[in-house]
Design goal:
- By secondary structure, this protein is of the alpha/beta class.
- It has 3 domains: 56 residues; 197 residues, SH3 Domains (SH3 type barrels, Roll); 255 residues, Glycosidases (TIM Barrel), CATH 3.20.20.80.
- The chain contains 18 helices and 33 strands.
- Strand 11 and strand 12 form a beta hairpin.
- The protein is elongated, with a radius of gyration of 49 Å.
């Protein structure tokens, strides 16, 4: 047994002296009290304390580790319990997020806790409403990057555009005759025709066909043309998309410009508006390319390749690049077909109004001082009924004398001498053909060089008859050019009320468009100039800029007359008189005319008792102003109504100005 205090044994106990002095043993006797140990020195105590500290530290570390282990276990249990609670409470939402590949960040956690505020809405949009589709035949039109109000239709598996859509987007050149159940399209050499409702059409003398009808009427009476047929006459891209729910749409391009595009970084949703709660149009997938239409702070407006336009978050888009889609080509273009350069470089025309046959004698007298005149247009053919019959006073010797003087003869055809139904004439293909045949035959018989059409229609008649009259001119141009005849048409300055003349189309099919830039004020109107400089300028600008008629084809019609206006007791009347006659009236009364820059004309007014007389005079000065304007616009040709009314020196002024 070791001795108490043996330095080889480390004792970590609490001693009680009483216990030690009375310790009992099993050997049957009681041990005498041991002698008290000697008192240790202070240095000895210090050594003992140093030996005890490592033991105490180890026990403390064990306690800390034990307590730490218990804490960690508690945390693990808590996390497990929380995870179980989350899985129970939000399991479906988590699965949905994983399926949708949502970014699992702080916002996602907030969306779990506050779903109404932070979670992404996944409600699908009503695509029928989005594309405004009312039935399974409706087809939404996306023009360029815009969903437009007009709809196409799906008939027999083919896409059809309404005639209004065709005219607005593609071409205005189709002619429809519902009375004859025909759809026509004219070129410089032929009329391509289709019987409405049929798959076939005649072109280049052959019968051709499509897989579905070329044209047809809808249930509501709207007229439609097959998109494949329209493609023959207009360059455009047209891609059709649909699905099992008949979400029909067609992407149309008529212009091809540089677009900004980007691919998706990950799967996401295309939404109707920029917001996480906005309804979903469709899923867009990682790597899918979209066209960027507009970029905002956190969202971008984009268009998918299948013509959905909506919004995605900017963070889902890769860096953008640019692209330009290939342009559609191969369609018919009238400006490449028709002769856009007229036969004569310059036309100086005089209208010769006659009511009885002239062998050329009167013509020679009227043109004796017409310096520079190179075309004369006698009023020879007078339409008299809806069958296309006309009276005519053409004479071969008149033509011969005109040719001797170096003039071309353009016979004028007019409708003002008889009251008949122009609609009945021009809406009938048979009557149009008969009239054309007769005009060509007479022109060739008399050696006429050209035909000048002067069909003047009131606004009410024009709205009904205009489209048929223009078709007549298309068909007449084919036959006239086959036979070497020039073709011109007289029209008033374009306005909204006379748009039935279809100025743009006339610019294609006619050799010359004679712009009657006069009758600004007329019998029955308020007093004013017959042709102020502003009126003439607007007529030229509208014809050339709005309707794209080449300057080379425009013949600017000018008045050789003016009006003497009389206002008395609230009534306005006027008399049309020649240029010299008007000046004689002024001079005979000793009146002095004043130049007005506003009209570029001399003006005079005269009070005679209760009557006020006003005249906006025509003279060389007014013509200098107009010819100067024409030169500024690049218009070199003019026509004067009518021979015999022009003032002294006017032809010299016109010829001199326009040949400088």
């Amino acid at each position: 047994m070791g001795k108490i205090g043996d330095t080889n044994e480390i004792i970590d106990m609490n001693y009680d002296e009483g216990d030690l002095n009375s310790a009992s043993y099993d050997d049957g006797y009681t041990q005498e009290p041991a002698p008290r140990p000697k008192k240790r020195s202070s240095s000895s105590k210090k050594r003992r304390k140093r030996r005890r500290r490592p033991v105490q530290a180890k026990r403390a570390n064990k306690d800390v580790l034990k307590r730490l282990g218990q804490s960690v276990l508690a945390v693990i249990i808590a996390i497990t319990l929380i995870a179980i609670v989350i899985m129970v409470a939000f399991g479906d939402r988590i699965k949905e997020s994983l399926a949708n590949r949502e970014e699992l960040g702080g916002r996602w956690l907030l969306s779990l806790l506050y779903p109404e505020k932070y979670s992404y809405g996944m409600d699908p949009a009503n695509l029928k409403d989005y594309f405004t589709l009312f039935n399974n035949e409706d087809v939404a039109i996306i023009l360029q990057d815009e969903h437009i109000a007009a709809h196409a239709k799906l008939f027999d598996g083919a896409v059809y555009f309404s005639i209004d859509t065709v005219r607005d987007l593609f071409t205005k050149r189709f002619y429809i005759n519902t009375d004859e159940n025909k759809l026509l399209y004219s070129t410089s050499t032929q009329v391509i025709s289709n019987v409405i409702g049929e798959k076939t059409y005649t072109m280049d003398g052959e019968l051709k066909s499509l897989s579905a009808p070329v044209s047809r009427f809808g249930k509501d009476g709207t007229f439609y043309i097959n998109a494949d047929y329209v493609h023959l006459f207009a360059d455009f891209d047209c891609k059709f998309y649909t699905n099992d729910e008949h979400i029909n749409r067609v992407q149309v391009y008529t212009k091809w410009e540089e677009d900004r595009v980007a691919t998706l970084k990950n799967d996401t949703q295309l939404r109707i508006r920029g917001g996480i709660k906005s309804e979903v149009l469709r899923q867009v997938n990682k790597g899918e390319e979209v066209e960027i239409l507009e970029t905002m702070e956190t969202w971008s407006k984009v268009k998918t390749d299948d013509a959905f336009i909506g919004f995605v978050e900017n963070k889902t888009l890769n860096e953008s690049t640019t692209r330009t889609l290939p342009a559609a080509t191969g369609a018919y273009h009238p400006e490449k077909d028709y002769n856009m350069t007229p036969p004569m470089d310059q036309v100086l025309l005089g209208w010769h109004q006659i009511f009885d046959a002239d062998d050329g004698t009167a013509m020679a007298e009227l043109t004796a001082s017409a310096t520079g005149l190179n075309v004369i247009s006698p009023t020879w053919f007078f339409l008299k009924d809806e069958e296309g019959a006309y009276t005519q006073i053409a004479r071969k010797n008149y033509v011969d004398k005109a040719h001797e003087k170096g003039y071309q003869v353009w016979a004028l055809v007019e409708n003002m001498e008889s009251d008949f139904d122009e609609y009945a004439l021009f809406s009938s293909s048979e009557r149009r053909a008969a009239l054309i045949e007769n005009l060509i035959a007479d022109s060739l018989e008399y050696g006429i060089d050209g035909i000048n059409m002067d069909i003047e229609l009131t606004d009410s008649k024009l709205s009904k008859t205009g489209t048929h009259y223009v078709q007549f001119l298309r068909e007449l141009s084919i036959e006239a050019h086959k036979n070497g005849l020039s073709l011109s048409v007289d029209v008033p300055p374009p306005t909204e009320s006379n748009k039935g003349y279809d100025m743009e189309e006339l610019g294609y099919i006619m050799d010359y468009v004679v712009l009657m830039a006069y009758d600004e004020h007329y019998i029955g109107s308020e007093a004013g100039s017959v042709a102020s400089i502003g009126f003439v300028e607007k007529a030229l600008n509208d014809s050339m800029q709005k309707y794209q008629i080449p300057a080379e084809k425009i013949v600017c019609g000018m008045p050789f007359y003016t009006r003497i206006w009389k206002t008395e007791a609230g009534s306005v009347t006027s008399d049309a008189v020649g240029m010299d006659t008007a000046w004689d009236w002024v001079n005979n009364r000793g009146l002095e005319a004043t130049w007005r820059d506003e009209e570029c004309q001399y003006y005079v007014e005269y009070q005679d008792g209760t009557a006020l007389y006003q005249i906006w005079l025509e003279d060389v000065s007014a013509y200098h102003a107009r010819t100067g304007l024409m030169k500024e616009k690049g218009v070199k040709s003019m026509a004067g109504w009518k021979l015999g009314l022009e003032g002294s020196g006017v032809w010299d002024a016109i010829n001199g100005d326009l040949h400088q």
